[in-house]
């Protein structure tokens, strides 16, 4: 399936799940807008971004920006091919949208503004791991609804989570790891929280901010 179409199909599946989950919480899910781009993009709420940033979510305009060239990189550089690895990337960004709608993003942003760099990075890691957890929650529910996962899919998603952990990226880039500079969490942490969401399917079990250990 052509990548753009695949991303749109994945987005529609996230809407299925999150409309339902929000209804259970007595809330209305506001569906985000998808923007596909290659190389660079100008956003309404987050300024200008190049493909070096990879896929991202902008809380200011509630849009999910998916850089299609990132998928080639995921396959080539990070050795995480496969459709579920690609779906995981979309589901993670939608996780940030869920955080925005629940008021979590704003709360953490204001805490970060008052924190030093190491603490601000730590809060960023918690936010990212929770987005991984929400991606897992989505995978849990979409599998129950549609039985779309095939054997090897979860491994492919986890491989993507492993490949884009801070420790893996830093080691690849500079040969060593600086934990204080992490903003997304280690590979093991990302796999752990994604797996927890996948196993429980319970939105309430993803409080990374009060977890005794990440």
Structure write-up:
- This protein is mainly α and 214 residues long.
- It is 58% helix and 9% strand.
- The protein is globular, with a radius of gyration of 16 Å.
- The model has no long low-confidence stretch (mean pLDDT 84).
The overall pLDDT, averaged over residues, is 84
What profile does the largest beta sheet have? 3 strands, mixed
In the sheet with the most strands, the strands line up as 1-5-4
Helix and strand element order: HEEEEEHHHHHHH
| C-alpha-based Rg, rounded | 16 Å
State the helix count: 8
Distance between the ends = 36 Å
Residue share in helix: 55-70%
Low-confidence stretches are none
The total of beta strands comes to 5
Shape: globular
Structural class: mainly alpha
Q: What oligomeric state do the depicted chains represent?
A: single chain
How much strand?
5-15%
Keywords:
mainly alpha; 214 residues; 3-stranded mixed sheet; two-stranded antiparallel ribbon
List the helices and strands and how they pair.
Blueprint (H helix, E strand, L loop, with lengths): L2 H22 L8 E5 L2 E3 L5 E3 L5 E3 L4 E5 H9 L6 H19 L2 H10 L3 H30 L6 H11 L2 H9 L12 H14 L14
Parallel strand pairs: 1-5
Antiparallel strand pairs: 2-3, 4-5
At a glance:
The chain has helices at residues 3-24, 68-76, 83-101, 104-113, 117-146, 153-163, 166-174, 187-200; strands at 33-37, 40-42, 48-50, 56-58, 63-67. With 214 residues, it is mainly α.
């Amino acid at each position: 399936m052509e990548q753009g179409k695949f991303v749109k199909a994945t987005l529609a599946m996230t809407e299925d799940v999150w409309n339902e989950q929000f209804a259970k919480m007595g809330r209305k899910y506001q569906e985000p807008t998808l923007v596909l781009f290659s190389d660079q993009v100008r956003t309404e709420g987050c300024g200008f971004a190049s493909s070096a940033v990879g896929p991202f979510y902008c809380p200011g305009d509630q849009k999910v920006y998916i850089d299609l060239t990132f998928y080639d990189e995921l396959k080539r550089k990070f050795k995480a091919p496969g459709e579920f690895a690609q779906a995981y990337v979309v589901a993670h960004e939608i996780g940030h949208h869920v955080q925005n709608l629940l008021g979590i993003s704003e709360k953490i942003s204001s805490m970060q503004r008052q924190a030093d760099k190491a603490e601000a990075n730590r809060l960023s890691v918690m936010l990212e791991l929770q987005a991984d957890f929400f991606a897992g929650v989505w995978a849990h529910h979409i599998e129950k609804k549609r039985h779309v996962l095939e054997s090897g899919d979860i491994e492919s998603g986890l491989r993507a989570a492993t490949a884009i952990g801070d420790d893996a990226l830093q080691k690849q880039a500079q040969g060593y790891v600086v934990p204080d500079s992490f903003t997304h969490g280690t590979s093991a942490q990302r796999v752990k929280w994604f797996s927890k969401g996948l196993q429980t399917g319970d939105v309430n079990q993803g409080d990374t901010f009060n977890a005794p250990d990440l």
